[in-house]
Amino acid sequence: MAVSGKGSIGRAWDYKSRSAAEQAAMNNCSGACKVITSFHNGCGAVVHNSTTHRYSGGHGETRGKAQRSAMNRAGGGRYVTSVCTSN
């Protein structure tokens, strides 16, 4: 999952390699984006902390674990999006 400072988000999953998924996420994100989380056979999530004005990513075995991971990395904030692989 990739995000820009202005909130554009690129998501990609079920690719054969991490590099292919990260490139697809970057291609799906508008502006100056960076990859903030990658995951394999699990889920990824993005949280925005309006106090720090930062986006944080997390990953985990389930959507809930990915959301908690992102929230912990962000130091709190607002859940933005998540996605899980199909396997």
UniProtKB/TrEMBL annotation:
Region span, Disordered: 50-72
Domain named DUF4189: residues: 2-75
Protein name: DUF4189 domain-containing protein
Pfam families on file: DUF4189 (PF13827)
